[in-house]
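agent: user wants the structure for Sn-glycerol-3-phosphate import ATP-binding protein UgpC 1 from Paraburkholderia piptadeniae. delegating to structure tool.
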Amino acid sequence: MATDMATGIATAANMANVAVRDLKIQLGANTVIDALDLDVRAGEFVVLLGPSGCGKSTLLHSIAGLIDVTEGSIEIGGEDMTWADPKDRRVALVFQSYALYPTMSVERNLSFALRINGTPKAEIERRVARASDMLQLGPLLKRKPSQLSGGQRQRVAIGRAIVREADVFLFDEPLSNLDAKLRTELRRELKQLHQRLGATMIYVTHDQVEAMTLATRMAVMKSGVIQQFGTPAEVYARPANLFVATFLGSPSMNLLDGRLAVQGGSVRFAGAKLDVDVSRYAFGAQPSHGQPCVLGVRPEDVRVRIGADSDQRGQVSLIEPMGNHCVVWLDYHGIQIASIDQEKTPVAVGDSIAFAIDDAHISLFDEAGGARL
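agent: tool returned. relaying tokens verbatim.
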């Protein structure tokens, strides 16, 4: 471990990239992951995001060496670790459950693995002191787990991983057992910890807020397949398919069925009594006239306009006050459209109100396969 003399921030002396190639994992007759590739750069914070059962924890555990792969390879730091023992992979894993030894103090929990491995006493003291300082555990070192709050216990579990000074840190939904306030606090601490350590981290969650706030890049998974891998901003603004579009965002992306009208150099979306010029967009393949498609627009790009004279109107069906904004739901020709209203426009359920779509931030998807056009 080194220290940047200009900033005084600790930086990781050892970090490694992770390369997963053509990975297949079968559990019994069930194929959980099939032909999966993943590249994690050294020092990145990569989040594996997806619904329950999508294979994200299975992928993480295979990197840790807890699950045998059926086909493919796993490299850590340029070395083939596909069949290496977990202890030889230079990884540290933090589970969803704290898994602390109830009869040991915080200090003994932090140092247990080091003592078992025969690490010199002075080195153990140095590593425990560094981890407890990073995670603000100093005043708690003599306490037992039963004397700690849930957030403090999770910090101890994270500290137990840090003392190993691993090349790669793996987190399997470490915050899911905490209440909302503690999750927010620990999420911030994890991000700051990554900034201080500079270490490679791979984090599993089904919580999109955790993914968006923590990740340098995120992999959205479904049924054992990575649907999209990119920065949170890229994945949110330009979802690769309908699954990603609807999985991210709260409320999720509004979807409207329609067709493309192609006339000369002009391309328009027509559907749900909506007409949008989409000529500015670069299509992956030349669109055809009459091609069925789905238009997607984020709720923050739907703007309600009280008092505006427009044929594009919806009836307010629901209002959800969120403190700093309101979510206004509009019934538009039988379609429910969500609008995030930062101005908290004074409207009531049943009002007929005009709305406008910011066509600079729309997405178009193939109706049949769901891929981005």
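agent: one observation worth passing along. The domain at 255-366 is CATH 2.40.50.140 (OB fold (Dihydrolipoamide Acetyltransferase, E2P)).
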